[in-house]
Specification:
Helix content: 25-40%
Structural class: alpha/beta
Bound molecules: ligand 1PR
Number of strands: 30
Shape: globular
Radius of gyration: 23 Å
Length: 529
């Protein structure tokens, strides 16, 4: 069977390839428009912004062939933006035409009381019967998007499933052998692999029954539990997973060694982690792609880990000692091609915000803007490394203060959160509110909110910090630093609006298993995967 992958040079299609291989099939790339017409099965992962996907399709001369294949009802599976491409256009890229198979426009999620983009796990409601969803029993599927296909289209026979995120939207479409999903099967763990298997198995037709269900129950969006691996070389040059205690990763002079990145990531996936984050914590020192350790970690991890992978550390413009220039976009592109779904920018985000606050001008040239433009807002995470600065009174600083329940050493009842760079080594005059609001304005899609004071302490998350940041932005916020027990996850989700919570030390030291965290969320009635 000739299975082809339409890889137009966009984001992370490696995971689609790995998922197909994992279930025992070979897959080849589309080389020419002819391959689009002749393949037995075609998979089209649409990663990136609507405009960049359509521009690539048009530029490669694939548009007509795609429309022809769909009209001829040849087996086709579209993913994420590839579903949106069926429409005439999208609010994400005004003036850019889609394939126009379905009348109407793709719309941005309203900035209501939910974080946008939707990043995380949700269920789907079957509106028709389909082989694609054979044996689907309400498992959670992974979504990562700011735009949605509205349910009020004229051609309702296209709607296969709907999902609720502030409003109902089309989460998959189907007609005959044509299927497309807004969610990412290649990032949806074991149920995702099952959906691929259903598509690639060989029924004459991906049978769609005509009966429409009026399934009015609401779907369930989950809180995410994320495992984080701080990675660096130890003193003998081996790449290890380490862990700071308030960012100090050395114990009796040695870099803590808590395991191998690929092995630990695989273990966390099997234990039920909803996402895995790799942070190259010495990336600020030299060019992150020098001898490329992290690229290999991503390539190997994405062969067996089918949940979203984020990579951070050293993502910025860089000129090496020979004068060779690589932009942050170049670095990010290499990471995406190696299997990352999101990149995380730390120190460079602070530098970007410092310059922005000085000039007040959006240049369009920052790493945040450049990467979000090509790969979509949802692919850009800002990693924040803040520390508390205590003051006796808010009048003592121009920064946004909070009255804290945890006074300073001299009994100070107020504090602000200072952003640091280079892994906490250098303080700046930027506070977390300035950082997260400007980064959101520039197009960042998510905040990874660390906390130096809590890092590695097992004292629980800094709830005051999480609430402060969640009140300032509409994009998702991941609470990070300080988790000491499964209950700390229940507390952060009950006491703040955090969209996800991350831990490192308790997982690496096997003090708490991810399954225990999930069980605690279950008992607390908190929606989870
Ligand atoms: O600044 O773009 O090169 O990115 C560097 C990245 O590396 C940033 O994301 C920064 O947070 C991270 N980083 C740099 N130095 C350290 C360090 O520890 N010395 N790690 C470091 C920060 C934060 C989390 C940590 C949580 C949970 N670690 O990764 O795992 O705090 O820990 P816990 O559950 O054990 O409390 P750039």
């Amino acid at each position: 069977m000739d299975i082809r992958l339409l890889d137009y040079g966009g984001g992370n299609v490696r995971s689609v390839r790995n998922a197909v291989k994992k279930i025992g099939y070979d897959i080849k790339n589309v080389e020419t428009a002819e391959d689009i017409l002749t393949a037995d099965k075609l998979i089209f992962p649409g990663v990136g912004s609507f405009g960049s996907v359509m521009e690539n399709i048009h530029k490669n001369g694939f548009t007509e062939a795609l429309i022809k294949r769909i009209k001829e009802n040849k087996p086709f599976l579209g993913i994420c933006v590839a579903l949106q491409a069926f429409f005439e256009g999208s609010e994400e890229s005004p003036g850019c035409s889609g394939l126009g198979i379905i009348k109407g426009q793709v719309k941005k999620f309203p900035q209501a009381n939910l974080a946008v983009p939707q990043i995380g796990w949700n269920t789907v409601k079957l509106q028709k019967k389909s082989v694609f969803f054979n044996d689907y029993e309400g498992e959670k599927l992974y979504f990562v998007h700011s735009y949605h296909a509205p349910v009020d289209i004229d051609e309702k026979e296209w709607i296969l499933t709907t999902t609720d995120y502030g409003l109902p939207f089309i989460s998959s479409i189907a007609r005959g052998n044509i299927i497309a999903s807004q969610f990412h099967p290649e990032k949806s763990g074991k149920i995702g692999l099952k959906l691929f298997k259903n598509f690639l198995s060989d029924p004459e037709e991906i049978f769609i029954s005509s009966n429409n269900y009026n399934n009015l129950s609401r779907t369930k969006f989950c809180k995410r539990v994320i495992a984080c691996l701080d990675v660096r070389s130890n003193d003998s040059g081996d790449l290890v997973v380490t862990k700071g205690d308030q960012y100090d990763v050395r114990d009796k002079g040695q870099v803590r060694n808590l395991g191998k990145p690929v092995e630990l990531a695989g273990r966390y996936y099997e234990e039920g982690a909803d996402e895995v984050v790799f942070l190259n914590i010495t990336g600020f020192r030299d060019f992150p792609l020098k001898d490329q350790p992290m690229l290999e970690v991503l390539e190997k991890t994405s062969e067996n880990v089918f949940v979203p992978l984020t990579i951070g550390g050293g993502i910025r413009d860089f000129t090496d000692s020979n004068g060779k220039y690589s932009s942050a976009l170049d670095v990010a592109a290499r990471y995406f091609r190696s299997g990352a779904d999101k990149i995380s920018i730390g120190s460079d985000a602070v530098a970007i915000v410092e310059k922005h606050l000085e000039s007040g001008v959006k240049t369009g040239k920052t790493a945040i803007e450049q990467i979000a433009k090509v790969y979509g807002t949802q692919a850009v995470v800002i990693s924040v490394d803040p520390r508390r600065v205590y003051v006796k009174s808010p009048k003592d600083t121009r920064h946004k203060c909070i009255k804290t329940a945890f006074p300073g050493l001299q009994g100070e009842e107020y504090c602000w959160y200072q952003c640091t760079v280079q892994g906490g080594r250098k303080g700046t005059d930027i506070d977390v509110i300035q950082l997260v609001t400007v980064c959101e304005e520039l197009g960042a899609g998510e905040i990874l909110l660390n906390c130096i004071d809590r890092d590695g302490t097992n004292d629980g998350f800094d709830l005051e910090l999480v609430n402060l940041v969640k009140s300032a932005v509409k994009i998702p916020v991941i609470a990070s630093s300080g988790a000491g027990s499964a209950d700390d996850f229940v507390t952060v989700f009950n006491k703040t609006k955090a969209d996800a919570a991350l831990a490192a030390g308790i997982f690496h030291r096997q003090e708490v298993a991810i399954s225990e965290v999930k069980k605690a969320l279950e008992q607390a009635g908190i929606e989870h995967r």
